[in-house]
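Hi U.,

Before I forget, here's the chain from the pilot set. I'm dumping it here mostly so it's searchable later in email.
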Amino acid sequence: MNLRQAAIIMTFFCSKLGAYAFAPILRRTPSVSITSSTSITHLYSNIAPKTESYFQKEHQLHAASPLSLAPMMEYTDRHFRHMVRLISKNTLIYTEMVTSNAIVHERREAIERKDNLTSSPAKGSLLEEQVHQDLESFGYDMRYLRRFLGQGASMREGPSVLQLGGSDPEQLEQACDILTQLSERGYCDYTAVNLNCGCPSPKVAGKGCFGAALMEEPELVKNLVTGMHNGCNGDIPITVKCRIGTDKDFTFTKSGYEEIDDEQEYSNLCRFIETVGSSGVVTDFQVHARIAVLSKKFSPSDNRKVPKLKYEFVRKLVEQYPEFTFSLNGGVNTVVDAKAELERCDNMAGIMIGRAWAANPWSFAMADEILYPDSAKTSIENVYGSEGRPKNRLEVLKAYGKHADFEESLWDPVKIRRFITKAATPLFAGEPKGKKYRIALDEIARMPKKMHQIGETMEGQPPISEQIMNAALDNLREDVLLRTPLESYERLCAGSNVGSESSSEVIKDWQHDRKMEVNNRSSVSS
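Structure:
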């Protein structure tokens, strides 16, 4: 047994003892205005004891950590997460960030309109039954909250993490309490809840005063995670995603940053980790190995590329704090790279990858075999049922079609179809005629809105599953559709340019398409 394993076991038993030794009634705190870490006092005199559910989920979290899908706004929704799960049983998948303010506001609105629903579900539908049960059990219609917090219902999502954003302890506690209610109704079952302390977007870290801005307020973060833990009744692990720091104490320039004292910078990071960890709530961190530049008008894209990566900081954290677990984020784009990083630092819990997953999900089809060699022995559930894991992309589309049909049977195709087809768009990235397939999906996505605009219904139209399958069969070669994960992986390793592109080229194409999509939406809305 090494030092790290001993520390984790000791933490486990200490937490178990603490759960029973410190179990007075949880005191809810009044609303508090937080303006500075210097004004923060401990908002919670008691911490909810960690339950048996907590420790089960913590075990699942650790088992799934070697590879994780990073949280990405407008990408890691329940549809894309479903697609990822069809490709990998084990990968830990993160939601888009959801703000605590949005969750709390939506429940308040739902309670106010409970006697005057803005839209009624179809008579006799599953949705009507669900709304009736929501009102009966909790006194409000949960439909709109399910947009933020719901998971796909046609197949269990497996190891997954809900990421929240916010800077008000009471509001985050309320958001987690709402999450607990939706979990009781069976709309979601997350393995952990994560606090975003890493997003550098001006809308988040600037005007919102959360995300990466929280790196400068470790005492506040300590109170935020405590509120989240109490809101979840101690039933689910709370984790933190952060950067290695910010440019708070200096004006960032590329050349100037090279002269910054690494020891001081690392010391600031350690102070953040130690302060947040002293809450007794958080033991798991995901660290993007760059600073967040907040003092300049840097875009999120600039913050992903311009500041230098310092992997050595994260490796030092792993060795210095064996009682905590750390995952590395930033600059890793392939399964091969992820494996190499894990081998370079034996006790690293995992690698988090975002854009490469979004740009070319099938390039991770061998993740289970490469990064989870002992997964058959773990407690990670079999999410596929009797049909088993899809053997190629044709089977992936067939399985995804069940999800797509169920979603459209529950929700309005005019509003939801674009999100359903978007998740299937990058499945054939870099393949011959892949662009024709994407164009076909775009037409499928537009159809419900076009028909609505001319006063026609979707009645008589083939199900979306059939349309997606036809888009693939009509535009892609048979060998592409039937290529196995192992065959695809061997082609990538061989560096073959026949029908494939390098990871960086695919990501660049994806980024271009993403920018075009944003511009198109802006032109339509204006």
